[in-house]
Amino acid sequence: MLGKIALVLFYLLSPAAVLWACNRWKILGKIGPVLILYFLGIIIANLNLIPADCAGLQNTISSIAIPLALPMMLYSCDFKKFSVKTSLKITIVGIVAVTIASFVGFFALRGGLGEEGAIIGGAIMGKCTGGTPNLAALKVMLDMKNETFILINSFDMIICFLYLVMLMSVGIKQARKFLGRGIYATDKEVNLAEYAEKNPYKDFHKKESVKQLVKVTLLTLVIVAAAFGVATYAKRYDENIFTVVMILTLTTLALIFSLWKEVKSWDKSYDAGMYIIYIFSVVVASMANFRTMNYEGALYIILFQVIVVFGSFLLTLLGAKLFKVDGDTAVITSNTLINSPIFVPMIAASMKNKDIIVVGVTIGLVGYAVGNYLGFLTYSLMNIL
How far apart, in whole angstroms, are the C-alpha atoms of residue 150 and residue 55? Predict the structure, then answer.
């Protein structure tokens, strides 16, 4: 029990410590709190500092963090900047990029993937356009072996972690150089020298801020409860759509309330949601214990996933260049397809661009919807070829 209490306190307080350090030392500010928290989580996981019976606790915290954070971060988003045309173009580009990367990986490695090569290809295609729920659904649809599913799911965490590190360290910056920042981004980069002076958390303790945060929290809890109820009802008809319905309902309700003048004026809601994302970051990273994974006999599956994840990112950038889509939209598209909408707020925070969240979540929901279809179609084609 004491171990669990200590772990919860670590999860709640470590973001505050990291934010303080980022304000104090410019070098850490350049790295960014999300990336630092990711590394911190990885370190404590792989030094065996987390009690063995805390897996359930970690899953619970990571599961409730995003539903709480997402509405808070959407209240102040400017939905007027959302472009259906641009989002449609980049969604198609992103899906085509994953498709090409999947077939390239399949033909390059089919000799080592064995008899389940087409099944693996279809499952990874579905996961990288939708998310883990699509991977789980395709396991059943394609009759994948349990051992294969465990390998794909386990290594997906490592590869996607490296992918996120790449995005937050160099990917976003290089994409903006290649494609431009676009209409969603702020007019200029944040001046890190002024970061400490503009620390959004420094006056959270003031009376007016506390009142606002209480309102933010109460409205968010109402939205989460409503979304959970709708998703639970929908689950009675289809087990696999709970997450899709939950995120769609959360997003819709948050955007509706953002039209309310008072809600729009809440200047602490985004930062409150961002703090929850910081907690989510360290929790998720602390669940990736590389020492417990079985690497033997999985080389080809690992290489396949690396080709699809990183190859599709590069292809998405090239497609965005061809169709004149900005760098922020291209990056958030690749991220939301590879990692699902759950990770959209994290990358939006690294971009310092809250308005891109609506774009990322919308594209991610499309990915959820088509992931199973694309996965099964990919499997069928690979099985024939």
Answer: 17
Between CA 143 and CA 371 the distance in angstroms is 17
pLDDT interval class at 349 (50, 70, 90)? confident
CB atoms within 10 A of CB 288: 18
**pTM, two decimal places:** 0.73
Q: For the chain, what percent of residues have pLDDT higher than 90?
A: 31
Inter-residue contact 367 to 95 (CB < 8 Å): yes
Under a CB-based contact definition with an 8 Å cutoff, are residues 240 and 61 in contact?
no
Q: Which value, in Å, is the radius of gyration of the alpha carbons in the chain?
A: 20
**CATH number for the 2-181+207-384 domain, one of 1.20.1530, 1.10.3470, 2.60.120, 3.30.465?**
1.20.1530
CA-nearest of 200, 164, 188 to 347 is: 164
Cα separation, 239 vs 252, in Å, equals 21
Residue with tokens 């004026």: 265
Task: Check residue 180 and give left, alpha or beta (phi > 0: left; psi -120 to 50: alpha).
Answer: left
For 28-38, how does the pLDDT look when each residue is reduced to its tens digit (9 = 90+)? 877 778 778 88
Residues 314-325, mean pLDDT to the nearest whole number: 95
Q: Which residues, other chains included, contact 216 with Cβ-Cβ below 8 Å and sequence gap of 6+?
A: 72, 75, 266, 268, 269, 272
- pLDDT tens for 247-287 read 878 878 988 888 888 888 888 888 888 898 889 888 877 87
**Sign of dihedral through CA atoms 249, 251, 252, 255?**
positive
For residues 4 and 226, give the distance between their C-alpha atoms in angstroms, rounded to a whole number: 30
The whole-angstrom distance between residue 360's C-alpha and the CA centroid of its chain comes to 9
